[in-house]
# Entry
Amino acid sequence: MRAIVYTKYGPPEVLQLKEVEKPTPRDDEVLIKVQAAFVNRSDWEGLRGTPLYARIGGILKPRHQILGSDIAGRVEMAGRNVRRFQPGDEVFGDIQGRMGGFAEYVCARESALALKPASMTFEAVAVIPQAAVIALQGIRDKGQVQPGQKVLISGAGGGAGTFAVQLAKLYGAEVTGVDNTGKLDFMCSLGADHVIDYTREDFTKNGKQYDLILDVVAHRSAFAYKRALRPNGSYFLTGGSVATIFQILLLGPWIRGTTGKKMRILAVQPNLKDMVHITELYEAGKVIPVIDKAYPLSEVPEALRYLGEGRVRGKVVITV
Ligand SMILES: NC(=O)c1ccc[n+]([C@@H]2O[C@H](COP(=O)([O-])OP(=O)(O)OC[C@H]3O[C@@H](n4cnc5c(N)ncnc54)[C@H](OP(=O)(O)O)[C@@H]3O)[C@@H](O)[C@H]2O)c1
# Structure
């Protein structure tokens, strides 16, 4: 089968389109003919090997030679212990632990997969597993957003952010989106009440405070984020610099003890129920997956470069 392979960390040029052996499913896995795969920031981080957490399991060279964790496709073969799926079923899911989505075929455990609703395209569901689940767990589960609360989403024009803005609005919040100059109108179109251009304004220094901050690109000090929280407010970080992550881990409990402001890392758990819930919201017309561009498999390097250059609005998808 054809796959996009890399054996060392680096720029998109280290990726090569190669013929590799088609994977064989284990007893609890299915073999999927990939129809669409989603390009996440975590793929970009895994390609570059930075931030440092992107090297977990592979300090010097990549643990997985094929990137791609969010996939949608058709079941081609099922392992003998698989109960929920059979050949021909259309599925989607998050295969973070295994990766390998930028290929014609991939194996995945049945527990990681949900059935694709007939009303949604492969491209639209491929957007859901990581990005929408981060947003749902951040806004609904951890953030417990209530009507009237002030919510700020940092990275609101990206994959997780576009869902987070829509979900926070759905739960009745007043939403501020932060992203670059080119994405301000886009964030408004998603429903953001206020927008901040991160290249011109630092939201931690403008005197405004929020009940919840969901940050997918954290790089400031823990004290800066604390300043932007209302009393009893919460800050959740899903990605960012290693320095900020350590600060939140080390200082978060102390800040909470002394001020009542919650500061935590949001460790997102892949979750089938959440994936299905998002498809229901989609079918009810309450959220929309935003796809900026689609690339063929052979152009995964260009797709990753486009993401890395910071031009993506919403998400980039690979059609296989
Ligand atoms: N915690 C967990 O369990 C978990 C699980 C999976 C993934 N993750 C992480 O969660 C993050 C998800 O990100 P994503 O997929 O939504 O990324 P994305 O699609 O790349 O979106 C990030 C957005 O943030 C913008 N941005 C960059 N710097 C910014 C700044 N200083 N202030 C505000 N916005 C800024 C980017 O704009 P530009 O275009 O200008 O760069 C982009 O629009 C990744 O870091 C991933 O590794 C965490």
About this structure: The chain has nine helices and 15 strands.
